């Protein structure tokens, strides 16, 4: 949508004053009034048109990095009207390269009002005030909770296939996930290997997490359960050493300790107990969200399991 110049200096001042205030508090109505006076969103308050019958022609904004991934994977590039600021983050976004050149938004309701998309997709943890304001203006919105299981991941891929008119592609993504899971189960070979997902500062993912689900579906044992950490939590160096899992699962494996949170993973006791063959590496961008990237995560895990043996076989 082409932007019009502000209609008057007074309208410009109104919008400027609102921007300097709390974006999600009382300033929003003032800011929106400024935009209306400026002619930037003329007709918005009169009501929204119904979603286009052809899903592939919808202009969609995503306000969450995980919905970014599904949108980038299944939607035509021309249908993507905006993405979250993390969509192009190589460390966390699986499809960061695809996000380059597309509008990256800061996540404010004002931006959405100016873009006037046909649909907004967001996470359930996107700021409540932002979601409420967008809905109040009649902009259709779908919210997605963080996927914690493969079943939830399949359901979200399927729903995005419906939203974007890419049902066949979504079905293919789901089939690919199932095939990768079958290969992972074969690699695990019912050995019940004990694996501890270990991150910065000693955080471990429990059974009630996407990583915990992947381990369980593969027939592996999440060693965090032995510490009573169902949802996840922090563990000490001493606890990790005493636990002696068959392997630790890391998001990276290098010798760079840029802060104290990373230093624990480089402690000599960890290095001695977990040589390279007892380290499973799956980059964060493959498991931080549910989506087709889980297929690559499972393939990497399956390849690493081939060289892993139980400790009692040493």
Summary keywords:
single chain, 314 residues, alpha/beta, Rossmann fold, 3 domains, four-stranded parallel sheet, 13 helices, 10 strands, 41% helix, disordered N terminus
Distance between the termini: 65 Å
Strand order of the largest sheet: 2-1-3-4
N-to-C SSE string, H for helix and E for strand? HHEHEHHEHEHHEEHEEHEHHEH
State the fourth-level CATH superfamily of the largest domain.
Nitrogenase molybdenum iron protein domain
Strand content: 5-15%
Number of strands: 10
* CATH domain class of the largest domain: Alpha Beta
What's the tally of helices?
A: 13
| Average pLDDT score | 83
Q: Overall 3D geometry?
A: globular
- Rg calc: 23 Å
CATH topology of the largest domain: Rossmann fold
Determine the fraction of residues in helical runs and give it as a percent range: 40-55%
Q: Tell me what the CATH architecture of the largest domain is.
A: 3-Layer(aba) Sandwich
As for the number of domains, it is: 3
Secondary-structure-based class equals alpha/beta
Low-confidence stretches: 1-53
Biggest sheet overview: 4 strands, parallel
């Amino acid at each position: 949508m082409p932007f019009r110049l502000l209609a008057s200096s007074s309208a410009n001042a109104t919008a400027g004053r609102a921007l300097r205030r709390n974006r999600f508090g009382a300033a929003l109505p003032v800011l929106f009034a400024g935009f209306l006076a400026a002619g930037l969103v003329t007709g918005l308050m009169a009501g929204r048109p119904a979603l286009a019958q052809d899903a592939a022609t919808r202009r969609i904004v995503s306000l969450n990095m995980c919905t970014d991934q599904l949108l980038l994977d299944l939607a035509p590039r021309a249908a993507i009207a905006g993405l979250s600021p993390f969509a192009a983050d190589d460390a966390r976004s699986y499809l960061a390269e695809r996000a380059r050149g597309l509008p990256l938004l800061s996540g404010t309701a004002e931006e959405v009002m100016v873009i006037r998309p046909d649909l907004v997709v967001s996470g359930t943890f996107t700021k409540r005030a932002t979601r409420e304001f967008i809905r109040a203006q009649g902009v259709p919105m779908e919210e997605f909770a963080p996927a914690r299981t493969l079943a939830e991941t399949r359901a979200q891929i399927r729903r995005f296939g419906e939203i974007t008119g890419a049902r066949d592609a979504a079905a293919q993504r789901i089939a690919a996930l199932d095939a990768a899971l079958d290969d992972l189960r074969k690699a695990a070979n019912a050995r019940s290997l004990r694996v501890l997902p270990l991150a910065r500062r000693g955080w471990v993912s429990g059974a009630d997490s996407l990583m915990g689900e992947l381990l369980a579906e593969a027939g592996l044992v999440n060693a965090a359960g032995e510490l009573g950490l169902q949802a996840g939590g922090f563990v000490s160096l001493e606890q990790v050493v005493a636990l002696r899992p068959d392997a630790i699962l890391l998001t990276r494996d290098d010798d760079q300790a840029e802060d104290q949170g990373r230093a624990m993973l480089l402690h000599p006791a960890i290095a001695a107990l977990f040589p390279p063959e007892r380290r499973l590496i799956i980059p964060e961008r493959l498991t931080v969200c549910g989506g087709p990237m889980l297929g690559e995560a499972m393939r990497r895990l399956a390849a690493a399991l081939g060289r892993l043996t139980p400790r009692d076989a040493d």
